[in-house]
Structures are given as C-alpha cells and as structure tokens.
Task: inverse folding
C-alpha cells in the first residue's frame, strides 16, 4: 500500500499570499496518477488537480500541481478567501488507492 | 449534468449491516467505475473500493474484504455498498464518487451512525 504523507499539517496564511502544500509517497506513484482535492466543512471533496499537474474542469488557474515519482506539490499562487479549506492528495495508480491525511489551510 | 444522489442517513446497532445506494444521472452509467470513500467524524478520507457497473467487477481494499459488498443495477443506474458487522468505528459519512477524464463527481454523502 502506498502511504501518502502530507505536510505541513496546518498552514496559516493570509489572502493574497502563496500557498505550497506537499505530498510525499512511500513508493513511486504509477504514471503520476496523483490528484489533489479540496474539502470544505459539510461538503464532499472537490477535485482540483489530476495526473499530478492537470487542472480539473472549472478550476481557476491560481491552482497548480507539480511533481513526479514520490514528491508532489500543490501551489495556490494568490489565496482567495474561498480557498481556505482542507486539502488531500490521492493516488489512484495502485490498489489500494490511498489518500494523504490532509493539510488544513487556515486564515492567519 | 452529472449527478450522484445517495440514500439518506442511517442509524444502526453494532453487528448490523447497512446498505447505501448511489443513483447516477447525466452520463452513461456503465462507462465509469463507482468508487466508495468514507470519512469518520473529524477525520480524513478513506478509499473503500470501486465497482465497474459494466462488468460487475470490483476492487475492494483489503481492510474491508469479507465485510463489504459492492453491487450495481444498470437498469436503474444505481450502485450499492453494503457493509456488515458494523462497529462504532464504522460511524462515518460514506460517499460514492465517479472519477471522470478531467474531473470527479461525488454524491452528497450518507451519514451512517453505529450506536447501541
């Protein structure tokens, strides 16, 4: 099973700042099959990025994903008030699919 | 538009079983796997497995094997997840989801509470 470790656990930033979230896999993610989800309280997750670096339909271009192999990054270039939430990385290249434990992005 | 609509909240006693349904619309039901993901209160996301509505084939996480059954009825575009031998650790919101080519679609979630 691929274990995904996200860091930091909590990130405190202000609107307008840049956010960098990390996801490290315990072994190489097959075909860079890595997605990023955003989840707000009481809502299902929303996909932001798939295949490590492709933006999902309707996602603003301030969200970007990068990385390959075992190290992946989600960057939010300029934080908007609605961006504050919990973010999860998810690998879907190997069974069982797995999620990271999440990074909470909070307003400073 | 694509929609996944799940059945309502359930309260079950320890040792019982629960079945959650997920009705799909807005796309060809057979074309995509339906995944099941759960989230315990205040916790992260946990992938349980998927079912192919086209073939009936499944891939279920080892943790749940022997306790989870995933089925589908293509005549009504509905997938089902049944979890047996419930304990308090199974209290969670259960989501169905569809990974599409450039997006992902989720049901609204079904809260299953296990309590004596």
Result:
């Amino acid at each position: 099973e691929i274990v995904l470790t996200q860091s930091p656990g909590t990130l405190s930033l202000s609107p307008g700042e840049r956010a960098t979230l990390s996801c490290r896999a315990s072994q190489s993610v097959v075909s860079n099959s890595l997605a990023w989800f955003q989840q707000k309280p009481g809502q299902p997750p929303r996909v932001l990025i798939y295949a490590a670096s492709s933006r999902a339909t309707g996602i603003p271009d301030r969200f970007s994903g990068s990385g390959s192999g075992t190290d992946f990054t989600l960057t939010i270039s300029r934080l908007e008030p609605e961006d504050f939430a919990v973010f999860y990385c998810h690998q879907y290249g190997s069974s069982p699919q797995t999620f990271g434990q999440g990074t909470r992005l909070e307003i400073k | 538009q694509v929609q996944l609509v799940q059945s309502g909240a359930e309260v079950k006693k320890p040792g019982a079983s629960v079945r959650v349904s997920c009705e799909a619309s807005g796309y060809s039901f057979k074309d995509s796997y339906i995944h099941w993901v759960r989230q315990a209160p205040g916790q992260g996301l946990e992938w349980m497995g998927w079912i192919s509505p086209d073939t009936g084939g499944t891939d279920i996480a080892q943790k749940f094997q022997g306790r989870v059954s995933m089925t589908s009825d293509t005549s009504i575009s509905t997938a089902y997840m049944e979890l047996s031998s419930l304990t308090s650790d199974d209290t969670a919101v259960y989501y169905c989801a569809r990974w599409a080519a450039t997006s992902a679609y989720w049901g609204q979630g079904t809260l299953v509470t296990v309590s004596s």
